[in-house]
Structure formats: C-alpha cells, structure tokens
Amino acid sequence: DSYLNPNYTFDNFVEGDCNRLARAAGFAVASKPGVTSFNPLMIYGGVGLGKTHLVQAIGNFMKNKAGGKFVLYVSSEKFTSQFINAIKNNSLQDFMNFYMQIDILIIDDVQFLSGKEKTQETFFHIFNHLHQSGRQIVMTSDRPPRELEGVEDRLLSRFKWGLTADLQTPDLETRIAIIQKKVQAEGIQIAYEVIEYLAHSIDTNVRELEGVMISLLAQASLTRREIDLELAKTTLRHLVKDSEREVTVDTIIEAITEYYKVRTADLKGKSRLREIVLPRQVAMYLAKELTNLSLKSIGYHFGGRDHSTVIHAIQTVNDLMDTDKEISTAVAKLLKMFRK
Ligand code: ADP
Ligand code: MG
Fold first, then answer.
1. Which contiguous run of DSSP H or E holds residue 89?
2. Within a 10 A sphere around the Cβ of 18, how many other Cβ atoms?
3. Nearest CA-CA partner of 54 in 68, 73, 79, 32
4. Which of 35, 109, 178, 225 has the most crowded CB, counting CB atoms within 10 A?
5. Residue 137 has what DSSP assignment?
6. Beta-bridge mates of residue 137
7. Is residue 139 within 8 Å of residue 43, measured between CB atoms?
8. Cα 49 to averaged position of ligand 1 atoms, centre (Å)
9. Domain spans of the chain?
10. Looking at ligand 1, which residue's alpha carbon is closest to its atom 16?
C-alpha cells in the first residue's frame, strides 16, 4: 500500500498565483521522477494551503503511470513511529531496506522530525541512498528549510539541494475558482453571488473554505432550503460564534450600527451625509484593523466600493484620530470591545 488518497489529483488542484511554481514543479517531478534537478522537491506553506493535496497528486500521477514504480507517501510522524517500533523489535535493518527500495518517497510535514535526532540520522541515510541512486524525494514542511529548528545541518543542507517552492494564501480569484470546483464536484447549483460572498469572507486557508462549504451544504439539506446569500450568511455567523474566530465585517457593522445609531443599509448604501459617511469610514477602518481581509474584500462588504475608497476611509479616520478627540475615543472604545 502506498497510502495515497486517490481524491487528491492535479485535476482538482486549482492553479493560481499562490501555487503556480509549486504546482509546476510538482508536475515536472511527477512526469520525470528523479530526472529533473528538482530532487528533493520541498513544498512549504502554512496550514490548509494544499501541501498534502499537492504531494499526493504527485504520487497518484506517478502511480497511475505504467512502469511499476514504487511510490510511497508517509507522514513524518508515521515515519518516526515506524522507526521507533523497528528499534523496539530489533528490525531496524528491515525498516532501512524497505525505505531504500522506494522509487518515489513522499514525506509530509518534515517539521515533525525536529528534535528527533535518531530518526533524522536514519532518514539522512535513506535520503542519501535514494538520492544517489536517482530516486525521487518529495517533502513538505510548514516553514522554509532555513527556519526549521532542531534539524541537523547536514540534513538541512540536503533539503536545499533541489527545489524549494512555497504555497501562499490563495487570492480572491483562486478562492472563487476553488469554491466553483467544489460546487461542481458536488453536482450542485449555487448562485454566483453566494460564491463571491464566501470567497470574500474567508481568506485564511483552503481548509477553512472547505469547512464552511460543507456546513453550508449540510444546512441546506437539513433544512431543505436553497443555498442563497441569506443561508450563507447565517451559516458563516454560526461558525464564527462556534469557533470564536476573528472578527468579521458583519460583526463590525453590527457594532457600528448600534454605536452610531445608523442602519446597515446606510453603511452599505450611497449616502454622502456626514452622519452616515463617518460611521461607514470608521467601520472600514475597523475592518482593516481587526480582520485579515484585503482592501478589495472590505470594499465588497460595504456595498461593493472599490479599494481606493477603502484606502481613503482608512486615511481619513487615521487623520481624524489625531485631531478629533471624540473620534479617537470612539475608535479606541470600539477596538477595545473587539479585542477583549
Ligand atoms: P496542508 O497539507 O497544507 O495543511 P491540505 O493539502 O490538507 O493542506 O489542503 C486542505 C484542503 O484544501 C484539502 O481538502 C485540499 O484538497 C484543499 N485544497 C488546498 N489547496 C487547493 C487547491 N489549490 N485546489 C483545490 N483544493 C485545494
Ligand atoms: Mg498536510
């Protein structure tokens, strides 16, 4: 068994600026394992950005090709526990022999090898053997090799022999494409405005995006409701409460409407009255301070304003805080409310 999950393929790995190099390198390696200079291939990036998916796609691609290559996917934790068991059972040589026959070794989350000296030493020998005999090694890590602490220098230097490529947080267009792909795979229909809303609201990582999608689908089928914008908003609100995630634009808008006694529709609307414009600008300022959202996404949540309007709002509030005591007090109060 190669421990590959057949659901992780190149076909359903959506390409975007955030992953283009890593994906291309992965595809090159999958097409010509051990042949390119991308050996080892090291993919790194934060949680839920697609590391496991991408390296499994490499494995699946190679496994499905003719030629009978021995592909193995293993997490670093599993590798470590297998190693410990081998020592306990006096079967270290079998363990080494097994790993030394692999044609393509995919080892996930190597940051877990940190501090495990004996495991690293063994991995070092396996690595050397495979590399010298032209076999392919693919690794992932949650950080770049230079930031891996507790990993021996001689191993680290080998990690840098081939190609290191990172996965970044997907941009808006990629998030939309990922949701669309998921929706397509489920064989359901969702209005574009819902997809856009989700993509603008969750910009942390793909796993989170998928989590929200799953809840949304579950909600829809449990309540036999259609997936519309309202259901998406409710689902998101509940999820945020459950997991005490960061502040969202919706909760900021709620606080602003109470504080300034304005309506949500006004904040998102076109009014140029000062008693509306100021709360709207403060709300955008808070959104920038308290969420990770891009200026573009903040603008989206305020009636589809463009990012230059958001920049202007933030600048205005910044200036006012220096000159206007009432505003600086208000902003401080609101910030404190969210940060406690
Ligand atoms: P990591 O290993 O970096 O923590 P995963 O590979 O487990 O992340 O990805 C988390 C989820 O997001 C998986 O279900 C994966 O299929 C999905 N995913 C991540 N990136 C993409 C992408 N570019 N296209 C499609 N799905 C993706
Ligand atoms: Mg992973």
1. none
2. 22
3. 73
4. 178
5. E
6. 105
7. yes
8. 5
9. 20-166, 172-243, 249-339
10. 53
How many angstroms is it from 189 CA to the middle of ligand 2? 29
CATH top-level class for 172-243? mainly alpha
Residue 155 Cβ < 6 Å to ligand 1: no
* 249-339 matches 172-243 in CATH topology: no
247, 249, 254, 260 alpha-carbon torsion, rounded to 10°: 110
Residue 140 tokens read as: 């992932």
Closest CA to 311 of 281, 266, 267: 281
Name the residue among 285, 292, 289 with its Cα closest to residue 314. Answer: 285
Q: Report the amino acid identity of residue 185.
A: A
C-beta of 289 in contact with ligand 1 (< 6 A): no
pLDDT digits (tens, 9 = 90+) for 27-42: 999 999 888 889 999 9
Nearest to 199 by CA among 170, 231, 168: 170
**What average pLDDT does range 106-121 have in this prediction?**
96
pLDDT exceeds cutoff 90 at 239: no
Residue 189 structure tokens: 């229909």
Assign residue 244 a region (left: φ > 0; alpha: ψ between -120 and 50; beta: otherwise).
Answer: left
Q: What letter represents residue 25's amino acid?
A: A
Tell me if the domain spanning 20-166 has CATH number 3.40.50.300: yes
Residues comprising the chain, all counted: 340
Position of tokens 């230059």?
Answer: 308
249-339 has which fold? Answer: Chromosomal Replication Initiator Protein Dnaa; Chain: A; (1.10.1750)
* ipTM of this complex: 0.99
